[in-house]
Design a protein that fits this description.
The chain has about 450 residues and is an alpha/beta fold. Helix content is about 40%, strand content about 20%. It has 15 helices and 14 strands. Strands 6-7-8-3-9-10-13-12 form an eight-stranded mixed sheet, sandwiched between helices. Strands 2-1-4-5 form a four-stranded antiparallel sheet, covered by helices on one side. The chain has a two-stranded antiparallel ribbon with strand order 11-14.
Length: about 450
């Protein structure tokens, strides 16, 4: 996937580009980086992410909390800016600065259903206004009667009643609020819906209803979904293709059956092994596979996302890609879950007990946070260290030892600036003293 920048048009075409297999490419994320903060505080949340979503399909993006799933989804709706790469919709670049006319078309065609059904709805607005807001903004109705008809029709389709339109969000349950959020998105008649964990906050009995509702809209309107989730057991039954993301990197992309039969990347393997088994005895004896990033050596041979065949993309260096290809070419489905016998489990427990004393204990003294809560990097540390440079150096040493890196840098900066200034004054005084002796 190239890194050339695509020119932006003023309007979206009727259809997107067609790929080699004759599928219409609705959305393409190309080599996208997303960064938050600047300087020492910069966090690279998404790294060189690339994937495609085809017309009429459900593409799921899965990964653990903090992996960058929502960040990608918010970048598609132009909330998070891209630090590098580009996002194309129907072949037109929609990331970065775009014309106002195109921006309105993107908003109209791409809608989002948020994870928290309570926080995503305006508590001061009635359900009628919440659903109608998009219709008002884009004037997608002929007259007031047409607007009322569209709102009542969509509220009926999501399983609510017309009398609910005069109520406020706090009067509804979580499942009902999510239906309102879904109605707000669907009334715009979008082509792509980004569903950001739309069922994670709902009761198990309500989840199936919301998922069935989404599938119903997809079959009736030809919708495409970017479904963001962390639960592979649900994703398996609603997705056409799945992308797996780990710490901002897309590590594997494949069709649903392909991914579950051949989970080639170790992180994908670990996610599938964590899916609960309904049988309590089997679940108890299940051997979890834990992903260890240190197994990869990317110091020399850098990794990239490569198509190994069967429309299966895997992230790895040249050596790993060759191993993945060889495994896939054998065509024997991989077993992601291993069930231990009672004897094997007992032996494993005994081995753990024997090696328990060898494991290092994590105490408060040696447990290091990446950024401790009080590591604020306040400017007052710089001022204090400038006024009292010796004390500043002592504080800098203490902060460095405790891993308070931001505070350490501020103290060091103030102290060194003060000492440099004192040194400059001393040198200037000596020069003036020498001049005075010769005069």
């Amino acid at each position: 996937m190239g890194k050339e920048i695509t020119k932006t048009a003023s309007h979206l075409p009727e259809h997107g580009p067609i790929d080699e297999q004759g599928r219409e490419v609705l959305l393409e994320v190309k080599n996208v980086d997303i960064t938050f903060g600047k300087g020492d505080n910069a966090v690279r949340a998404v790294k060189d992410a690339s994937f495609r979503i085809f017309k009429g399909e459900t593409f799921s993006l899965v990964g653990e909390s903090g992996s960058g799933k929502t960040t990608v989804g918010r970048a598609v709706i132009r909330v998070n800016p891209c630090a590098a790469g580009e996002i194309l919709y129907k072949g037109v670049r929609i990331s970065g600065k775009i014309p106002h006319s195109l921006d309105r078309e993107v908003i109209r065609n791409i809608q989002m259903v948020f994870q928290d059904p309570a926080a995503s709805l305006n508590e001061r607005a009635t359900v009628d206004y919440i659903i109608s807001e998009g219709l008002y903004n884009f004037h997608l109705y002929e007259n007031e009667a047409d607007r009322v008809h569209k709102v009542e029709k969509i509220i009926d389709e999501v399983g609510l009643l017309p009398e609910h339109l005069t109520r406020y969000p706090h009067e509804f349950s979580g499942g009902q609020r999510q239906r309102i959020g879904l109605a707000r998105a669907m009334v715009m008649e979008p082509e792509l819906v980004i569903a950001d964990e739309p069922i994670s906050a709902l009761d198990v009995s309500i989840r199936a209803q919301v998922l069935n509702l989404m599938k119903k809209f997809q079959s009736e309107q030809g919708l495409s979904y970017l479904f963001i989730a962390h639960d592979l057991s649900i994703v398996r039954f609603i997705s056409d293709r799945i992308g797996v993301i780990y710490k901002g990197n897309i590590v594997e992309v494949a069709t649903t059956e392909e991914l579950f039969d051949f989970p080639l990347h170790p992180y994908t393997h670990s996610l599938i092994s964590a899916i609960p088994i309904p049988d309590p005895k089997l679940e108890k004896n299940k051997a979890l596979y834990t992903y260890d990033p240190s197994i990869h050596d990317y110091s020399v041979d850098l990794p990239e996302l490569v198509d190994i065949g069967n429309d299966h993309w895997v992230y790895g260096n040249k050596k790993e890609i060759e191993e993945y290809k060889a495994t896939r070419e054998r065509g024997i489905p991989l077993k992601s879950v291993k069930i231990l016998t009672d004897e094997e489990k007992a032996a494993l427990e005994i081995e753990r007990e024997l090696h328990k004393d060898d494991e290092p204990e994590l105490s408060a003294s040696n447990f290091i946070l990446e950024h401790p809560p009080k590591d604020t990097g306040s400017t007052w540390y710089t001022i204090l260290s400038f006024l009292l440079p010796v004390l500043g150096l002592i504080l800098a040493g203490i902060f460095r030892a405790k891993n308070y890196i931001r505070n350490y840098k501020k103290c060091k900066k103030g102290a060194l600036f003060a000492l440099g200034l004192i040194g400059a004054v001393i040198v200037l005084f000596l020069i003036l003293l020498l001049i005075a002796q010769f005069v």
